[in-house]
């Protein structure tokens, strides 16, 4: 690369559940980079293997954990951005490591895989961010963005900028519209649901909002977001289908319901490990006096002692995806815990478990249209890993019957839009602070 060569800008969609990267190459073509074999999406997961002292990423990390390899699995790290936990240390094997440094490790791996694919160093990055990392707290929200940027810089990127994820998705969708279109972009990720009403103009596609090549800010009519996403759906389904078999909502001695904190930890990706601490284990063990059905308590202790939390939640997630794709009932596989258990996820119990959260998501989408000063939009563009959830799609169709519903690239769309945005604003990409 010569000193005057246009730098390649890597669009990075660092997601709660999955991450993706893309760039516009020297010929002006879009490359959504295969990060996991032939797949664009890489599960945002790391596994620290105890015996080999190695770190596995993505699907390899999940598989090692599910195979029973001794070690520590970490998922949903994006959920910690903006919190005090990011600077705290956690036990990994025989040492402690900051959560922030774990995020840096993941960014380094993303960078390494992308550089291996394109065959050259990558120093410029356009980072996606949700409309709100943290709801109703501007200071923590800014902290989350700053932390994300610091992680990218420590991973070796020298120039970074940010773009809202739903706007990035809109820029990707804009490549395929044939006429001016007013669209509601619905980006349902693992941790957040983000919305943008935007006026799409195919003749100016690729120009980012506010870029030197063409100010697009007037085309963004409204943005909204809510801190609800796929990992919340997993938690709610886990609480509805699996945790009752461990004592959740069990009416115990004296007619009192068994305390629920342990079940919430076991059902929340980034909190599962807290359920295995000495303090939490002692608390759970002492719960036996609250149970009238001791079989439920024994099953809870088996799940904790064998550290089955991630396996249980992964089984729920797999059943959610299977049900969303086929529309049929899907078995939650709990053979590793108790072969007598056969809970299922189906359309009815999925809708019941997710009803309140989906109502909030749809309301946020409607608020976005209203904030844009519109009664309706031409199209609703769906992207994000959780955008295929059947009850959500049905609710959006009902709420916006006059709009054309368009299903986009669930995992690569935001990264592609970030790549278009990054390419359009070079050389004006913000330098490292």
Describe the protein's architecture and organization:
It is a single chain. The chain is an alpha+beta fold and 433 residues long. It folds into two domains: 9-178 and 410-425, Nucleotidyltransferase, domain 5, CATH 3.30.420.40; 230-351, no CATH class. The protein is built from twelve helices and 18 strands. Strands 1, 2, 3, 4, 10 and 11 form a six-stranded mixed beta sheet that branches. α4 packs across α12 (413-425) and α10 (347-371) packs across α11 (390-399).
List keywords for this structure.
globular; 20% strand; 37% helix; Nucleotidyltransferase, domain 5; 5-stranded mixed beta sheet; 2 domains; 433 residues; alpha+beta; 6-stranded mixed beta sheet
Question: What's the short story on this structure?
Answer:
The chain has twelve helices and 18 strands.
| CATH homologous superfamily identity of the largest domain | ATPase, nucleotide binding domain
Kindly report how far apart the N and C termini lie: 24 Å
Whole-number radius of gyration? 22 Å
**Which architecture name of the largest domain does CATH use?**
2-Layer Sandwich
Q: Which band does the percent of strand residues land in? A: 15-25%
Give the helix proportion (percent range).
25-40%
User: What is the fold named in CATH at topology level of the largest domain?
Assistant: Nucleotidyltransferase, domain 5
Total helices: the number is 12
Estimated structural class? alpha+beta
**Main CATH class of the largest domain:** Alpha Beta
List unreliable stretches of 5+ residues.
none
Described by the principal axes of the CA atoms, the overall outline is: globular
Tally of discrete structural domains: 2
What order do the SSEs take from the amino end to the carboxyl end, as H and E?
EEEEEEHEEEHEHEHEEEHHHHHEEHEHEH
